[in-house]
Amino acid sequence: xxxxxxxxxxxxxxxxxxxxxxxxxxxxxxxxxxxxxxxxxxxxxxxxxxxxxxxxxxxxxxxxxxxxxxxxxxxxxxxxxxxxxxxxxxxxxxxxxxxxxxxxxxxxxxxxxxxxxxxxxxxxxxxxxxxxxxxxxxxxxxxxxxxxxxxxxxxxxxxxxxxxxxxxxxxxxxxxxxxxxxxxxxxxxxxxxxxxxxxxxxxxxxxxxxxxxxxxxxxxxxxxxxxxxxxxxxxxxxxxxxxxxxxxxxxxxxxxxxxxxxxxxxxxxxxxxxxxxxxxxxxxxxxxxxxxxxxxxxxxxxxxxxxxxxxxxxxxxxxxxxxxxxxxxxxxxxxxxxxxxxxxxxxxxxxxxxxxxxxxxxxxxxxxxxxxxxxxxxxxxxxxxxxxxxxxxxxxxxxxxxxxxxxxx
Length: 409
Hints:
9 strands, 51% helix
């Protein structure tokens, strides 16, 4: 792996980040990766926290930096890591989010038909690997969990992965929510490898408790903030309505890339059968939606026009969160008020309401465990390694129901 010290990026969170090889530099320069500059990391969260304007590009570069730091630290502890494995791991984390569509998670299951961004990331991986003549083989295997040394994949995707170590610190920084700030450097310094799995040395257990606590707080205060949930539901309803109009054959202005995904219900089989779809998807980003909204606000369709204008003007749905599902009578009352006020059909009015469920769990007991390496060199689950009640409490999944609607002024 060739180090190129002349290529650096000045990151607001970590300072100067070195791009460590020509291959990594060429991947960053590729249009597929440059597209991440035009996708916000936190979707519509800037409607709540105005500073949350950072992008998937920021996050991917930061994650690559932390991967380098983590593997360099493991080397100092005697873990054998070749230069090829180091480079491949950095590429795997660099590309872990390349499959995200506009507004990150928000439209994952409405613009596409039940296709997860991780699946699209794998498609981009394969496309890039072809273009770089197989140079991404090892990175692809690490990303997909097929590489024979499993701890590399755990650093890319697990309950204590590099992805989370970056996004918690970065999202905390840009939102100004200080409760989410974590000591990612200390956690990285406490990592080790035992029996081919990532473990945390026992003296780092309080850092892990803080990491899980920060993650839980960030979900309630940022990722699942009720205003963000409301705005996201509006965007989902807008796309549903735009697709309905398009698929009826009515005219609707949209960018060429967006139009394909409005006119068709594209699922995984379509990506497999038509290689052109991934190429069109690579042209799609947040600006396609914002630009199209400028046209849609003048569209004759009531629901599409109202939702577009409301999004652009930040006239958001009113929302309630509850432990219990809101009553059908309450929902019908709000729907009738919208219908009568705007003199539209119940079907049209329904696009100005939304409902669903949100979940928050900082630590999944049923998932891949966070392992603690005790001073006796024994490996135990983080829950059993400590008597701290917080970690046990944070493994409980908290569900909340929401209902939102356009409030008549």
